[in-house]
Amino acid sequence: MTPALDEGSAYEHRQTRAMITVAGPDGRPLADQPVRIRQLRHAFGFGCTAPDMRSEGTPLPASWLALFDTATLAFYWGRYEPEPGHTERDRLLLAAQKLADRGVRLKGHPLVWHTVKPQWADALPLTEAEQTLRRRIRREVGEFKGLIDTWDVINETVIMPVFGNEPDGVRNAVTRMCADKGRVEMVRMAVDEARSANEGATLVINDFDLGPQYEALLAELLDAGVDIDVIGLQSHMHQGFRGEEYLVDVCDRFAQFGLPLHWTETTLVSGDLMPSEVNDLNDYRVERWPSTAEGELRQADEIVRHYRTLVSHPAVQAVTYWGFDDASAWLGAPCGLIRADGSEKPAYHALRSLVRDEWWVADTEEITDTEGRIALTAFAGDFEFSVGDLTGTAHLPVGAVRTEARLGSSSPS
After folding, report:
1. In sequence order, which residues have a C-beta less than 8 Å from that of residue 331 and are 6 or more positions away?
2. pLDDT at 1
3. Rg, C-alpha atoms of the chain
């Protein structure tokens, strides 16, 4: 069975070509049996910022779960620990567990950043501030180990040692630390502390600078033996879609380092574009920034072009959309897939038609051969197989795969 994927397609490198032996609880192949196949999750990370779940009774939005399989949870130090030792641990644990129970993969963002850090840390002497930050990294990674095992370990390091957007008389603790240690040793510190709390964690370095300075930093880090796992790339396109040629160029330049690429923060607006002369997106302030009918059609077209381009590039392993709805969007921009009134924009349906239709195996049925086998070509990921009341699951990776789905067991093969 080959659902909408052909040899030589732009997505061939995303495909599993699997021969699955469907077996009963006793391990015997189930020959000549109708098997219902259902995809559960992509191997590729189709992510979004986590839905807001402030209380135990807050339900997960069905529209979020119908599109995304990977969530980024906010661990901004200044909000997570507004007073020394008083953290948002319990609330984040509750939210993380609810998402994980629905099969959603989780990432924490960020462990180290010069922005949204606690003001009380700024007043600490440099040595004490560093020890406090080191403890903060170990604490969060350790307390969430097994639930959140992927972290944006350090955010926007290129600008970090020179960042100075603080009130008069205040010296940013993280900026001071990075200026004192240097970028390479600042990243090494963050990575080493995170590794000490979770050796198997996936650690992402993340930046909005997609130019030569970020490339130079990455080269220095790898030459110095700093053990990062993933290169994170941001693309807040509040001033307009940057186009396929630009995206391919960025992917090609950062793929040279031999590490997977995650597009960690990506947005497209569905209203008027931010003026091109604005250098820092944070400086743009308007009383209202509404979504428009024309802008929503543009956003729908651009989101398809954006995702097709990134998913077709072999170095990219995940794309995270930054802001599910307009009501909670960064800078108040109309960049969500859901309007402020809760209704779905055309971009939501356009993206869902890719992720959960064109690139997805809907419920379907195949007949096993005389040896209990079925063939499946599809986007790699997790699948469920059922014969009558018996059910089993299997993870099918990219490439040619021979595996068994033993039914009657809840554990993946």
Report:
1. 238, 281, 282, 284, 289
2. 44
3. 23
Q: Which two structure tokens, joined as six digits, stand for 106?
A: 């989780």
Question: For 301-328, what is each residue's pLDDT tens digit?
Answer: 999 999 999 999 999 999 999 999 999 8
3-class DSSP assignment, residue 372: coil
pTM tops 0.90: yes
Question: Coil, strand or helix: which one is 118?
Answer: coil
* 154/118 Cα distance (integer angstroms): 16
Q: Can you tell me the distance from the alpha carbon of 250 to that of 235, in angstroms, rounded to the nearest whole number?
A: 11
CA atoms of 128 and 390, how far apart (whole Å): 58
Task: Compute the C-alpha angle 193/198/199, nearest 5°.
Answer: 90
Which 8-state DSSP code applies to residue 332? G
In the three-class reduction of DSSP (H, G, I as helix; E, B as strand; rest coil), residue 89 is classed as: helix
Cα(192)–Cα(195) distance, integer angstroms: 5
Residues 6+ positions from 175 with CB-CB distance below 8 Å = 114, 160, 161, 162, 163, 164
Bridge partners of residue 321, in order along the sequence: 48, 266
- Separation of alpha carbons 340 and 211, rounded Å: 34
- Each residue's pLDDT tens digit, 348-390: 999 999 999 999 998 999 999 999 999 999 999 999 999 999 9
DSSP state of 158: T
Give the number of other Cβ atoms within 10 Å of residue 400's Cβ: 10
HEC per residue, 336-364? CCECCCCCECHHHHHHHHHHHHHCCCCCE
Consecutive H or E run containing 373: strand 373-379
- Is residue 261 scored above 60 in pLDDT? yes
Looking at residue 297, its amino acid is L
Phi, psi of 278 (to 5 degrees): -75, 120
Please check whether residue 67 is in contact with residue 352, taking contact to mean a CB–CB distance below 8 angstroms: yes
Dihedral over Cα of 86, 127, 231, 247: its sign? positive
